[in-house]
Amino acid sequence: MSEDIFKQIISHAKEYGYIFQSSEIYDGLSAVYDYGQNGVELKNNIKQYWWKAMVQLNENIVGIDSAIFMHPTTWKASGHVDAFNDPLIDNKDSKKRYRADVLIEDYCGKLEAKIDKEVEKAAKRFGDAFDKAQFVSTNQRVVEYQQKIDETLKRMGKSLEKNDLADVKALIEELEITDPLTGSKNWTEVRQFNLMFGTKLGATTDTSMDLYLRPETAQGIFLNYLNVQKTGRMKIPFGIAQIGKAFRNEIVARQFIFRMREFEQMEMQFFVPPGTELDWFAKWKEIRLNWHKALGLGDENYRYHDHEKLAHYANAATDIEFKFPFGFKELEGIHSRTDFDLSQHQNFSGKKIQYFDNEKNESYVPFVVETSVGLDRLVLAIFSNSLKNETLEDGSERTVLALPPALAPIKAAILPLVKKDGLPEMAEKILNQLKFDFNVMYEEKDSIGKRYRRMDAIGTPFCITVDHDSLNDGAVTLRYRDSMKQERIPVEKLNEIIDREVNMKYLLAKI
Ligand code: ATP
Known about the structure:
Elements: H1 3-15, E1 19-21, E2 33-35, H2 37-56, E3 61-64, H3 73-78, H4 80-83, E4 85-90, E5 97-99, H5 100-126, H6 132-138, H7 140-161, H8 165-174, E6 191-194, E7 198-201, E8 209-212, H9 218-223, H10 225-231, E9 238-247, E10 262-272, H11 277-293, E11 302-306, E12 316-324, E13 327-338, H12 340-349, E14 355-357, E15 362-364, E16 367-374, H13 375-386, E17 387-391, E18 397-401, E19 412-416, H14 423-434, E20 440-442, H15 448-458, E21 462-466, H16 468-473, E22 475-480, E23 486-490, H17 494-502, H18 504-509
Parallel strand pairs: 3-9, 19-20, 19-21
Antiparallel strand pairs: 1-2, 4-5, 4-6, 7-8, 9-10, 10-16, 11-12, 12-13, 13-16, 14-15, 17-18, 21-22, 22-23
Helix pairs in contact: 2-13, 5-7, 5-8, 7-8
Bound molecules: adenosine-5'-triphosphate (ATP).
């Protein structure tokens, strides 16, 4: 990645009302961000895209909204008190703290970048005759890089699974990984660090109860499994979906909204008969990837990454990775969670959490396949992929945020050419005609050219310009953000034309 591109993304997000550093006037709070007037619209549209795809389009999936505070035993049962740790390591010279696994993954990321470079060079050399698959499996240098990556990740996965932190440290030393900031190799031992935030419920110290801010929304679904199954008369297989905040005391919180301490997740737990979970896991892997691809950010920007190291509750796990400006990283996790969570809650609560299967004529604890995507990571993926610097035919430059139209915060801006002669009044009438269908805005400040550029930068798919002719012929100029094409359109046709581009149903139909 070029640092400059990432810097541009962050400053563009701020300048156009998408994302602000939290508590900025007090010098900010690290890894906590606020969404501005446009950011919240984008985020709400993404939520809607997810919710409709998961809940509305699936007869057998329903949604809930559970509280952030939960009984503390929840986290004992789920394993988070004992096992929700990240391995951390400090550099003795720089006094900086890092996640040991991230240092090792970044090392592999560098090898991957080297492979990409070799592939790029070879593609140029061989032209049309280039066969990428053959090249990466036969070129000696590439094969060696790939072997090194595979060996490294495998060893790290094994060591972490066995909690062999000394070996993780040994691996960092063997790979000669240095502090990314200073180049120092003077590392401490690797230690485990629990990621949950603690807080207290109640007024007095002796009656208060220690709580955690939930580190994932999933447990709220498990605790409501029986409520939903019974009151909704749900038949297995069925799913429960939820969108909500989660909190993690991340050790290294860099990369803007990629890794935050307070973030939002969109999770769905799918309950299935034991023994069928791996088939459902394969199905959900595919369904979720298709959901991402329908956004049109480029199929080549997604890939699966199957886990070497499985979490304590899983018997299969994969990430859907996206090519962020800093490389391929996890966007969504899909996990086959077995019956671990429900069984644990059954044991810890003493309440029977089972399903009576009429067809099989038996009771069992359902198995679970989870899909869990970070809403903020989606915002970052979509925002960074959409931000483009273009050189136009006349040599001038423009910055355009080519968001998928269904997700754009503002669908159309209505712009009177001048602030007089009855044009603002006509523009306002058009605003009133459109506002019941779409989020639209009125803008009269600055020259029309400047207003177009500003709307391009915000990502508004349409500009509607009202000029003097409009007063006579009842038509306006409709300008398309991406092609910059301009068309004369009768005012009464506007709703239909805009709807065709921005209505979410067309996006949903692509999945
Ligand atoms: P990572 O390995 O990047 O820490 P994870 O594997 O711990 O992520 P999960 O527990 O699987 O993540 O959470 C599901 C999803 O929640 C992730 O795919 C990601 O999109 C999102 N997510 C997790 N942690 C954060 C965070 N600190 N900030 C923003 N999003 C997050």
